[in-house]
């Protein structure tokens, strides 16, 4: 009887230990990966003309303040500024993180526009990376 109990304990302990070890190795995404996701989301939302997502989840409050300084709500201001852009494409390059600030090198292109290389600046806002400037 004691052996059977011991075997059951070992049988339960081994999978539990394996799960614990697996959890230790997967600490979640790095800040660099999270910045890359934020930049990718920015590119997708811009291409889809999803100004609501840009204003609600992607742009930093400091950038929204600049965008709305023309006297329009964020979504309307972005529509005015980006509405004429056709077939935008964004390619992510190097990402650099320094504390709660980050930069991402990007190449952008759009129909009837020359491609450009830019650096987006991002900042961490309440734990999430947000785009704080569109070009440097």
- The count of β-strands is 4
How many alpha or pi helices? 5
Strand content: 25-35%
Largest sheet: 4 strands, antiparallel
Structural class: alpha+beta
Task: Give me the side-by-side strand order of the main sheet.
Answer: 1-2-3-4
> Would you tell me the overall average pLDDT?
84
What's the shape? globular
What secondary-structure arrangement, pairings included, does this model have?
Layout: H1 2-25, H2 31-47, H3 51-58, H4 61-67, H5 74-82, E1 89-98, E2 101-110, E3 113-125, E4 128-133
Antiparallel strand pairs: 1-2, 2-3, 3-4
Helix pairs in contact: 2-3, 3-5
Give a structural overview:
- There is one protein chain.
- This protein has five helices and four strands; from the N terminus they run H-H-H-H-H-E-E-E-E.
- The N terminus is likely disordered.
- Strands 1-2-3-4 form a four-stranded antiparallel sheet.
- 48% of the residues lie in helices and 29% in strands.
- By secondary structure, it is an alpha+beta fold.
- A hairpin with a 2-residue loop joins strand 3 and strand 4.
- The chain is globular.
Short key terms for the protein model shown above:
single chain; alpha+beta; 5 helices
Summarize the structure.
The chain has 136 residues and is an alpha+beta fold. The chain has 5 helices and 4 strands, in the order αααααββββ.
């Amino acid at each position: 009887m004691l052996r059977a109990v011991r075997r059951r304990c070992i049988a339960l302990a081994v999978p539990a230990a394996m799960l614990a070890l697996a959890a230790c190795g997967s600490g979640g995404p790095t800040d660099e990966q999270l910045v890359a996701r934020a930049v990718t989301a920015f590119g997708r939302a811009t291409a889809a003309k999803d100004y609501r997502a840009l204003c609600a989840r992607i742009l930093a409050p400091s950038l929204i303040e600049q965008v709305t300084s023309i006297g329009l709500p964020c979504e309307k201001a972005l529509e005015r500024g980006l509405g004429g852009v056709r077939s935008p494409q964004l390619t992510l390059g190097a990402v650099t993180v320094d504390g709660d600030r980050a930069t991402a090198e990007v190449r952008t292109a759009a129909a009837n526009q020359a491609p450009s290389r830019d650096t987006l600046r991002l900042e961490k806002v309440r734990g999430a990376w947000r785009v704080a400037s569109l070009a440097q």
